[in-house]
Amino acid sequence: EALETGAHDPNQRGFTVQNIELTLSGNVDPYFTAIGHVIFGIDREGESFLEVEEAYLTSTALPANLQLRGGQFFTPFGRLNPQHPHTWAFVDQPLVNGRLFGGDGMRGPGMQLSYLLPLPVYAEAMVALQNSQGETMFSFRNAPGESLFGRTLIERRVEGVGDLVVTPRLTTSFNPSDTQTLLLGVSGAFGPNGSGRSARTELYGIDLYYKWKPLETVKGWPFVTWQTEVMTRRYDNAADGTFPEEQLRDWGGYMQLTWGFVPRWVAGLRGEYVAGENGDLTDPLRERRVRVSPNLTFYPSEFSKWRVQYNRDDVASRDDLVHSIFLQWEFLIGAHGAHTF
Fold first, then answer.
1. Using one digit for the tens of pLDDT, what is the confidence trace for 199-232?
2. Which position among 167, 182, 219, 230 has the lowest Cβ density within 10 Å, counted as fewest Cβ atoms?
3. CA distance 91 to 337
């Protein structure tokens, strides 16, 4: 259990129900669409729980290439954070996402404004403004009273815009050739954290996604994808009666390749690295880790998939390597909208 950082990752030896998701979507009126994702889960003690993962409106008729979103939604930081687990190419989330965004991913209530730039290639600028408190804002105003990075977190109320999380993002996409697509993105997130009255957190990230697919395919096969994200965090750890003030720096990233070599079969390989600077580097949330994960996925149909994955973990606090094997089964029933490319 100590190896996996995501709330939807396998959480025990034996069987894990990673995610049961109910999706509701539809048109509100000529001006807005709405979507909601309700999550049911079972923890390692066997207790069931329920959470509203996302529930938001999206405008459809704003002028000047603008789009507005409002409600509870995943923060538009990087490529993987806004995605749901059933779209992942691997069983578990990358280590850097768990370290910077926490187990549930970075999300919260707020508003987002997007602008499609009038350029010959796709380019979109967006900025989100969201509440900064709770476990889903792990690097910001996390749960008061709990300990994080050697400090007991305090309660900080919202007194102005500066007490919210501001997340700007710029993304672009173009086709180097008729068989290739490349997406690039840069993100930032800025807001308060709970270690002190004036403590702040800054997140920065770069992401890249590349896909090759020939002009003639069989149900989308063959294909090759390459996805990479690199992120860093600067976290003000405020002084208390025992420890002086310090600025913690953490960074990491992952690179994953997938190869759809014949119809219904996909092979994947992911490499990851996370590390920290300053502060207590023996903290499990900050120590150096390296992970390598090959996997193989079979799609009996577009509504289900089977996946086998192996993880090789190198953890700084352990003298030996840790080996894990997962067998994952996922299925879908009912109508399902297209995923973002």
1. 999 999 999 999 999 999 998 999 999 999 999 9
2. 219
3. 22
Whole-angstrom Cα distance, residue 235 to residue 240? Answer: 15
> Residue 99 and residue 252: Cα distance in Å, rounded?
9
For residue range 96-123, what is the model confidence (pLDDT) as tens digits? Answer: 999 999 999 999 999 999 999 999 999 9
Round the average pLDDT of the chain to a whole number and report it.
95
pTM metric for this prediction:
0.95
- Under a CB-based contact definition with an 8 Å cutoff, are residues 312 and 321 in contact? yes
Q: Residue 181: beta bridge partners?
A: 211
Name the residue with tokens 């799609």: 299
The C-alpha atoms of residue 245 and residue 251 are separated, in whole angstroms, by 20
Pair of tokens at residue 330: 């996922």
DSSP string over 23-76? EEEEEEETTEEEEEEEEEEE-TTS-EEEEEEEEEEEES--STTEEEEEEEEE--
Residue among 118, 128, 148 at smallest CA distance from 236: 148
Cβ contact 317:283 at 8 Å: no
End-to-end alpha-carbon separation of the chain, Å? Answer: 32
Q: Does residue 10 have a cis bond before it (omega within 30 degrees)?
A: no
The token duo for 41 is: 């889960």
Nearest to 287 by CA among 250, 255, 258, 324: 250
Tell me which residue of 171, 251, 264 sits closest to 203, measured CA to CA.
251
